[in-house]
Design a protein that fits this description.
Shape: globular
Number of helices: 18
Number of strands: 37
Length: 652
Amino acid sequence: MCKPNADTAPMASYKRPMKSLLIANRGEIACRIIKTARAMGLRTIAVHSDVDANAQHVKQADEAYLLGGAAAADSYLRAGRILKIATEAGADAIHPGYGFLSENADFSQMVQDAGMVFVGPPADAIRAMGSKDQAKAIMADAGVPVVPGYHGTNQDEAFLKRKAYEIGYPVLIKAVAGGGGKGMRRVDKAIDFDAALEAAKREAQASFGNDIVLIERFVATPRHIEIQVFADNHGNVVHLGERDCSMQRRHQKVLEEAPAPGMSEDMRATMGEAACAAARAVSYSGAGTVEFIVDASDGLSEDGFFFMEMNTRLQVEHPVTEAVTGQDLVEWQLRVARGEELPLAQKDISLSGHAIEARVYAETPEEGFLPSTGTLLACDFPDTIRIDSGVVADDTVSPHYDPMIAKLIASAQTREEAFAALDAALADTFIAGVNTNIAFLRKLLAQDDLMKGSFDTSLIDENLESLTRKDEVQKPVLAAGVAALLNSMQGSGGGPFAAGDGFCLWEQQAVGHDILLNGEVRRVEVSFDNKGFHLSSGERPASDVRAVRDRYGDIHTVHEGRSTLFAFPDHAAGDSEGGDGAIRAPMNGKVVGLSVSQGDSVEKGDMLFAVEAMKMEHAVVAPFDGTVNDLAIALGDQVDGRLVALNLVPVE
């Protein structure tokens, strides 16, 4: 049981008026907060960058104000501008959501100093938990288990190497600032330590401006299990159970579920009390998540979990906790922020059923999870499960922000039923105009070890090749896409079958076509009879394939969650000759590198240009020796990944 901290003076008179709320965020989480705030009768105020002027959170709020340019530094990270808007708009409180300024202690303090309520913990609590080494020291003093290791300030290389030897290999070198796996290296042998330390420090300095690291024992079979905690300003602290977030890629969460498979009531109580102790140790208030690394080498045990970090905000994956507790965590946040006591005591909180969440991203897993940006030609979700999203059809997935399209949350009485419901919903989702990770997610859900509960955080990395393999397009899907493409061409007045009524003087006629199937040339033989187009080999279009046409006349199909792009080669080549030499940008984004000029001769493998989107840079190289022609881009341009950047004329 989590009980009030006896050292914390009750604040029964702590009451703050809250009639209007500014949401200092965008996208899905801003829409999520607006939904609950409006249900509580609050006036909602949105802020936005110039490219988000027509975003859903702007449309859903009662009022909206421009922050600045597209880049986060020019908009959602402008603390002073946000406070100025909040003051002018008459906001009583500011909710930071997650990301951006949500864990910025200075921003929390600025909001409070301006006489407004920060819907989150006090600045001191954010600072205390913001540094991994300081946080671990605080936790150790509070009796919370921490991973054995060195968390001090001595950064002498020889000293750190000696500490690694004392801890025992394998060890983890971890940056004390930041997260997301940056500045982190696993070291299995002493001979590799020096190089790993240098790399970790270099990456930490580049990412966080701080190269201080700590050394910890590496847990060989780790599960990532976190506890949702809540505290109010009256000394009450509770936990709302755990979430298993072990399905990760490069330390980024992919699937989250609650409760954790294999978790006993006794272990839940022990971990919950440890999480409450962590919150009490920093005089916490509001929603927080205490993340633990759990040694699952011999199942889950009460002495096998260790504090990793505390996220001083609402988590992306909070809906699975809401599903199994029946509570609205955003409502809890707002009630605590305006001075109320927690809605429930620990004894009144219970878990029921199972929930799992999948994050649907605009990305291409088959190409190293390259971000995919552009206009959503379709964005339809089934109504069988909960969907948290910040976009609809005709919205744009911008290269400037996180590429998450939606969170799909399935809940049921059993884990198996929840998994089945999520998989069915993913299969029934229709997103076109950008690539998505839906096929990847469905393959992950089908992994035997995941279903059996015998997994750790390495499952995705160990199976990455099979999870991201390009599967052959099924022939009924191929037939559907080709038929839609030919119908599209027919509707524009061209093509071999100009008549649109299905009439033909012969029984059928086969015609060969070169098409682009996901950018690769494919030769298909197509026939047409009184039942429509079909492949000459006999396959007819699958009836459950959904398709949409883009402004280029190309066809996007989705079948069982997998998207396929059908186009004609001359669409890719534009008006120039030599379609095989048409070089497109790999994604929508900014040209951050340009190595060629019109008429330059290049050799195979030479860099042509580089495009950056969502903090990821992708270089485009020459596929063969040739001469640059029809150069259509310049350094600094924002480019559309569907348009031709240049044509490369092969050397004769």
